[in-house]
Structure formats: structure tokens, C-alpha cells
Amino acid sequence: MSADAVTQITQEMKARVGDNSGLGATLKFNFNGDGIVYVDGKSTPNTVSNEDKPADCTIKVGLADFMAMVDGKLDGTTAFMMGKLKVEGNMAVAMKLGPILGRK
Questions:
Q1: Mean pLDDT of the region 72-91
Q2: β strands within the chain, DSSP E
Q3: Which domain holds residue 23?
């Protein structure tokens, strides 16, 4: 289930990021052992992959919590305050995620 979920998240993230996300940085979602989604917002066009490489910002979150955030059932700030979401590196990059995750 987790591999399928990460594949689905990767495809959805590609659609939401598009050619230019405006992120201007690299970002990695680490789903606590269930997989990685890496967004290269520095490349032109932007790319999304499952590579585990260094990023300007790494967000560690469980798959279920990430899905709840995307579905609007869990607020990102609340998840952070509860320790369900951890941010390493440049916090400003994480703050730019709202508009990207909200795109359809």
C-alpha cells in the first residue's frame, strides 16, 4: 500500500509543481521509511522524483498524516506543533508549500 501511495503522491506532485513551482529550492518529503518524494524547484523545468538526495528543506511526516493534510483534514501548522511533521533545513521553503499543495 505504501509504495502505491508514494507513487500516487509523486504523480500528483508532478502535476501540482508543473514546469515552474516558484519554489526556487529543493525539497524532500521523507515518509518515515515508506518512501521519498524529491522536488527540484531549482531546475528548469522543475522535476519531481523518488530520489533520496540532499535538499534545502526536508519534511518528515507519516504517509497517513501527509494524506490527511492534502485532504484538508489536518492543518500543517497543527501537525508541526503536535510533532507529526518535522522540518529540517530552510523553513522558508516549507512555508512556500501551501500554494503548491493547494493547486489542482
A1: 93
A2: 26-30, 36-40, 47-49, 57-61, 85-89
A3: 2-60+86-102
